[in-house]
Amino acid sequence: MAAQIGIVGGGFSGLLSAWLLERLLGDEAEIVVLEAGDQVGGRVRTTRVPEAGVSYEAGVAEFYDIAGNPQLRHLVRHLGLETRPLTGTPSFAIDGRVVHDDAELAGWLGQRGIDQVRRFWERGTALRPPADYALAGRLQDNEHPWLHRTFEDVLGEIDDARGAWFTAMQCHSDLATEPARTSGLFGMDNLLIDHPGYCTMYTLTGGNDGLVRALAAQLTSPVLRSAPVTSVRADDTHGIQASCTTSGGAQTRDFDALIFTLPPPGLRSVRWADTTLSSAVDAHIRHHDHGTVYLRVTLLFRRRFWRDLFPEDYFVSDAFGGVTVYDQSPDVGADGVGVQSWLIAGTDALALAGRPDADVVAAVLGAMPAGVTVPDGALITGCVDRWTGVAGVSGLPGGVPLLPLDRRHAPDPRWPQLLFVGDYLYDSTLCGALDAVLHVVTRLAGRLTDRPLAPNAALALFAPPSGVIAAPPDPVPHAAFFLDERRRS
Question: What is the 3-state secondary structure (H, E, C) of 367-386?
Fold first, then answer.
């Protein structure tokens, strides 16, 4: 008899879990995906604007190529998706000026400031070599001295106030929270996104939602939309039961295994009927609930008037505590329709989230860098996408300390087939979400079939065959400041 598997959540993690389990289990399992909303994809969302003839990334802005962790790249290639490198020096709009390189930054920071920042990078990279960065979120991170300190405390090692401020501002959009609310290790990991020896970035041609569209198109299992799971019961008589609300009314289903891909706020919305299970899930939530807020504010202009000052794919501004501004114009090298997407994070995003769209757009227009003047009549429209609550991200993924993987993914040891997946357990990226899915589906497939599976059984479904060398990543890295040529090589 086929095992009944339920997957709660139709985002990247849920769709990938179903896609892998179909291939690992075949007709030994019947799988259903239960999605609370009316569309799949979660935070991977590309929005089309027909009146402007363009699209923009309303959610995930870029994918990461992490040195030593090529799984996401392998999946993208396996699905036949075309990629485009995301490039940038990056440039900074700080303190009323634009900084394009180390020399200009040194002129603003002063020699002492730049030396202090360079020393901080030297210490940070020494404590976080690329091999460890590739395994972010694993148990060995508990031994890192910066995991148990706040990022604010760690930044105190920069003995220059302006240098410490600049470093915090530089990674604010990626960090998604304030330095006092996360760990020094997570802060450093987000700075290292700007180090080409650790990470490069890319997007998908035709829209980043091509990833979830490709997964959904290959699924044979049903995906029920507008079907939120409201309660879960687990007992020895019925196993795992999940109740959900659908257009046809309330339904209760029996499952041999249930995978939740919801973040902690979503888990809070579920009633856990068994007292012991409820306590275990509550402990899981309390340890991992470090939610923070993103606002993605996208401005569509009649032309790309900022091109001369910021010619690449993104720049960083000191507005809103530190914000990455992506150039999502259809052709970054042309003067046609211009699309700017501002990724506002943390406290500033929370302050703006409750205001009307028009106020948010006005605030962003008023925060344009010095030297960038919006021409009269240039704005076509402004779009505000709020990533808050259930849709938000984690400002401290994995919590402190990091829990063993089995406990992290299965909070109640009585029910090892009730599993939790999500980027909030690892590093708040699609790479982390993929790592979580690989662990859970391999474990679950082996348990349901009662046959041992190799640890990389799920990964082998899309990784290049042994002995086959995968094509290298897109060749254009985005460069970091403070890295001399020796370290860049």
Answer: CCCCCCCCCCCCEEEEEEEE
> Alpha-carbon distance 225 to 216, whole Å?
13
Between vectors from CA 472 to CA 74 and to CA 134, what angle results, nearest 5°? 60
> 193-242 pLDDT, tens per residue?
989 899 999 999 999 999 999 999 999 999 999 999 999 999 887 789 99
Record the tokens describing residue 417, joined without a space. Answer: 């087939």
Domain count of the fold of the chain? 2
Report the CATH number that the domain containing residue 450 is assigned in CATH. Answer: 3.50.50.60
Which residue segment(s) compose the domain that 162 sits in? Answer: 52-205+292-392
Residue 382 CA, chain-centre distance (Å), reads 23
Burial 8-24 (b: 16+ CB within 10 A, else e): bbbbbbbbbbbbbbbbb
Predicted TM-score (pTM) of the model is: 0.94
At a CB cut-off of 8 Å and minimum separation 6, what does 304 contact? 327, 329, 332, 334, 335, 336, 337, 338
Q: Which residues pair with 393 in a beta bridge?
A: 292
Q: Are residues 238 and 361 in the same domain?
A: no
How far is 119 from 98, CA to CA, in rounded Å? 24
Q: Between the CA of residue 327 and those of 85, 183, 316, 330, 461, what are the distances in Å?
A: 13, 30, 11, 9, 35
Q: Are residues 194 and 217 located together in one domain of the fold?
A: no
Q: What is the token pair recorded at 391? A: 């849709």
Please tell me whether residues 409 and 426 are part of one structural domain.
Answer: yes
DSSP letters of 266-285?
A: HHHTSEE-SHHHHHHHHHHH
